[in-house]
Amino acid sequence: MQQFLEKYLSGRQLTVFWLSGLAVLSLTLFVLNLILGSVNIPFWSVIQALAGDMQMDDSWRLIVLKSRLPQAITAILAGAGLAVGGLQMQTLFRNPLAGPSILGISSGAGLGVALVLLVAGKIGGVALSHLGFTGHLSVALAAFAGASLVLTMVLFLSRHLKDNAMLLIVGIMVGYAASALVGILKFYSMKEDVHAYVIWGLGSFSTVSWSQMGVLFPVVTLGLLGSFFLVKPLNVMLLGEQYAGNLGINIFLSRLLIILCTGLLTATITAFCGPIAFLGLAVPHLTKGLFRTSDHKVLIPAVILAGIAVALFSNLIARLPGFDGALPINAVTSMIGAPVVIWVILKGKNLRTPGV
Amino acid sequence: MHDEKKSLIETRSLSIGYHHPRHGQKVLHSNICVKLEAGEFACVLGPNGSGKSTLLQTVCGFLPRLSGDVCIAGKQIDKVSNRQMSLLASVVLTERVTVSNMTVFDLVSLGRTPYTGFFGRLKSRDLELVSEAIRSVGLEGFEERLITNMSDGERQKAMIAKALVQETPLIVLDEPTAFLDLPSRIEIMHLLRKLAHQHNKAILLSTHDLDLALQMADKVWLLAEGRQMETGTPEDLVLTNEFRRFFEREGILFDNDTGQFTVEKQKVKTIRIVGKGIEYKWVSRALARRGFAASDEPFSGFQVEVKSDGKREYLLTGPDGKIQKLRTIEDLLTQLEHEEATLLTE
Questions:
Q1: Do A288 and B100 touch (CB under 8 A)?
Q2: What would the pLDDT profile of A154-193 be if each residue is shown by its tens digit?
Q3: Can you tell me the mean pLDDT for A70-81?
């Protein structure tokens, strides 16, 4: 396919071709997300519901507006945000296996959630999982608090650690420590609470209500916009820190901003959707394989579109009739993600050394 | 303007080394006073661990100096911002750069970073400079090649092109020839010297290729542990025996005549070699390896006559006066060994 296209299109045309292809794919998947589900709603009814037509079937209108639309938008935001975070981390650490969770941010979020779900349940004597909506909000807040704590710590350390490799190790260690604490908490907790924690850990795009969207949307948009402003330092960082420094890039500031941008995206998305695995790791590889470039001017929009498409696709699969919306999103993303990572390793040619 | 030479690097009683968190300062060298001027091609030579990289990194501002002064283009290095530095000195490091999906053109155009705007977009002048640099390092037609699919020598040339488009008066290279085979080494050194002289750039590099440095460098900086740094034109350093003192170890000799290192051998046996030209040279080298010192005096031992006109032949005369005709040096050596052995048994 690639060779075939390369025969007819020049490099720039090929980029435009794939970008528009991904955009069309994302749009189609978005519409399919609104149409398909346990109840299939005809296309025109979806349009009617979106247009605010009150004449139509109430249940259909509610399904589209209250359930499917926020879910699809959440998938879009999460897919785009995590993919960009993954790309930035892979470039910053010059490591093809880095992802947005590499800095321990997801583990921090997990710890926050574990504290709320497991400890609060223990103290209050009531399993928090029964509380419903307030439970959701407190879970999101706890996740954000945990993620921010780890992010602050990593940012602080990044000022003092000269080497990116050291920062990477610290991030992974923080992740292990947080997981260990979660393990202890789980061990002493009630069955229902542990179950609630496991459910959170499987990730979901369906827990974000419109009011929560008021937080998720602006923060993720800000993070995505921010990533566009980091194109130049990201490109130069590919050569390593010493070359970047010699090319007049302020390494400390750039590194801080890259981590902040990824951290903000990951923390917010994890808070609302749970730790979504693999998206952030696999999508950048998928994109690099398609676009064959190392230029972040192309890669960032490409990765955003690819992230959106993959997230919407995963959401669609998770909701396939038969699964009844019961299939956790992490199961789907990992099923897509694992083969992609294996493909990347087998393709090996482009992956010899720390190259990204 | 051209008559007045600008010194791009000037150090005054500079000390280099490392700050170690627990052991305090480790000073590798102190009291370094050197100067590098525009259009000069200088090589830093010294054994492993002598502080070549440390010196280069200190001069580029990657490592802090321990004491003394470094001036880059007349400005004290502390007062040169990161950004100004990117316009004064470009570097090529030892580390192999491998970034997947990056073409030569992408790589070289990153050298324009200090000049491009916020998103790093290249203007037509940038594009022109990039193509010109790729041409001047001899990578024409390689623009769209991925750097992961190139030989080390080609990649090193691309890195040099990157340094060129940075348009700095000073280029510093840390062992640019380390991974390369001999022809590529010569090519790179030749290219750098050409660039220094044609573009009036000051080029400073560290290398282990002593004989290449001797042939090509305008200035040589000699570093060795526990010694004062010596600088000068290579020829002066040879004649004042500095090279010998810096590099000689037990069993290794620096030959002031040829500018090469030789492995010390017990040359006890002498042999007479008759001949001329390049054949003469290589035959005596081969014989030297077997422990024969060449002598011109006629004597009763072995004699080799090299016939170099027309058909190449080697005539070996033994002490008994018997003459053997041999076609290759290999045959000559085997025959010589054989005759020696029979001589000993008799």
A1: yes
A2: 878 877 777 777 888 888 888 888 889 988 888 888 787 7
A3: 94
Model confidence at B4: pLDDT above 60: no
Asked if B274 and B235 sit in the same domain, the reply is no
If you count them, how many residues does chain B have? 346
pLDDT computed for residue B263 by the predictor = 66
Within a domain: residue B258?
no
* DSSP-assigned states of every residue in B92-161: E-SSPP--TT-BHHHHHHHTTTTTS-TT----HHHHHHHHHHHHHTT-TT-TTSBGGGS-HHHHHHHHHH
Q: Which amino acid is at A303?
A: V
For B112-128, the pLDDT digits (tens) are 999 988 888 888 999 99
CATH of domain A2-351: 1.10.3470.10
Closest CA to A213 of A78, A315, A11: A78
For chain A, what is the HEC assignment? CHHHHHHHCCHHHHHHHHHHHHHHHHHHHHHHHHHCCCCCCCHHHHHHHHHCCCCCCHHHHHHHHHHHHHHHHHHHHHHHHHHHHHHHHHHHCCCCCCCHHHHCHHHHHHHHHHHHHHHHHHHHCCCHHHCCHHHHHHHHHHHHHHHHHHHHHHHHHHHHCCCHHHHHHHHHHHHHHHHHHHHHHHHCCCHHHHHHHHHHHHCCCCCCCHHHHHHHHHHHHHHHHHHHCCHHHHHHHCCCHHHHHHCCCCHHHHHHHHHHHHHHHHHHHHHHHCCCCCHHHHHHHHHHHHHCCCCHHHHHHHHHHHHHHHHHHHHHHHCCCCCCCCCCHHHHHHHHHHHHHHHHHHHCHHHCCCCC
Interface test with chain B among A162, A239, A356, by most B beta carbons within 10 Å: A239
Q: Taking CB atoms and an 8 Å limit, are B60 and A288 in contact across chains?
A: no
Q: Are residues B240 and B275 in the same domain?
A: no
A127-131, B102-106, B328-332: which is most confident:
B102-106
Asked if the structure places residue B254 within a domain, the reply is no
Domain co-membership, B74 together with B186: yes
Question: Does A288 sit within 8 Å of B62, measured CB to CB?
Answer: no
Q: Is residue B40 part of a domain?
A: yes
d(CA A122, CA A115): 10
Q: Which domain holds residue B85?
A: 7-249
Which of B190, B218, B249 lies at the terminal end of a domain, its last residue?
B249
Instruction: Report the CATH number that the domain containing residue B35 is assigned in CATH.
Output: 3.40.50.300
Judge whether residue B295 has pLDDT over 60: yes
Interface with chain A: mutation pick from B95, B102, B179, highest number of A CBs within 10 Å: B102
Structurally, how many domains does chain B consist of? 2
Cβ-based neighbour number of residue B61 at 10 Å: 21
Q: CB of A274 within 8 A of CB of A74?
A: no
Same domain? For B233 and B305 the reply is no
Instruction: Indicate the domain borders of chain A.
Output: 2-351
Question: ipTM score here?
Answer: 0.81
Check whether residue B171 and residue B303 sit in a common domain: no
Separation in Å, CA of B210 to nearest CA in chain A: 27
Q: Which among B60, B87, B98 has the least Cβ separation from residue A352?
A: B98
In what side-by-side order are the strands of the sheet with B170-174? B89-92, B170-174, B202-207, B41-45, B219-222, B230-232
The whole-angstrom separation of Cα A192 and Cα A140 is: 19
DSSP B247: H
Same structural domain, B296 and B233: no
